[in-house]
Specification:
Elements (H helix, E strand, L loop, with lengths): L6 E6 H5 L3 H4 L5 H19 L1 E7 L10 E4 L4 E5 L6 H13 L7 E4 L3 H10 L2 E3 L1 H28 L2 H4 L2 H16 L1
Parallel strand pairs: 1-2, 1-5, 2-4, 5-6
Antiparallel strand pairs: 3-4
Helix pairs in contact: 3-6, 4-5
């Protein structure tokens, strides 16, 4: 059985792209900036155990029917339909989620003050785009530290460190004698 994270995080994608300096620097190629954000959030969602719904609005895109793309079990990308803003989509999903008893915690990432007030009124938690950047940066540091500690712990689990010193010495002698022959 596949584990699905219970806590949800809805993110206004363009709001984040316009708030993070590394994404602002590449937003001339909007597709690349979106892909970069998806990549960053995939690692973050996995590490923090969040189900992330990343929303990009197509409010001004003529004829857009909207679409959804499941990236992995932690990230889903939503492109809204023509005339629908990311804010209105997020509000609708938050209200639906807040009615469910099994919803877990619901977080919304946006720097739009009016949207934050609506989200708080619905009972969800709000995070600004800058705050999310801080959380992601800290999580990335923790991932690297955790990986480094795992590697160091793995080395400590070598056989020579788990054996009695006399036995380890005798096995080393046998190994050396075997190389002489």
């Amino acid at each position: 059985m596949k584990y699905i994270p219970q806590d949800k995080m809805l993110i206004d994608g363009y709001n984040v792209i316009n708030a993070w300096s590394e994404l602002v620097a590449i937003k001339d190629n909007l597709e690349y900036a979106r892909d970069k954000l998806v990549d960053i959030l995939s690692g973050y969602g996995f590490f923090q155990n969040y189900r992330i719904i990343l929303v990009f609005d197509a409010h001004g895109v003529k004829g857009s029917d909207g679409c959804q793309q499941v990236i992995n079990e932690f990230v889903k990308v939503v492109y809204t339909k023509e005339g629908e803003t990311a804010d209105s989509y997020i509000e609708k999903v938050v209200y639906d989620l807040m009615r469910r008893p099994d919803r877990g915690r619901v977080y919304v990432v946006t720097s739009d003050w009016a949207e934050q007030m609506v989200i708080l009124g619905a009972g969800a938690y709000r995070i600004s785009a800058r705050e999310l950047r801080t959380y992601v940066t800290q999580a990335q540091k923790n991932m690297q530290t955790g990986f480094s500690e795992h590697v160091l712990n793995y080395r400590r689990q070598e056989l020579q460190y788990r054996l009695n010193k006399d036995i380890a010495k005798r096995l080393d002698e046998i190994r050396r004698d075997g190389k002489k022959e």
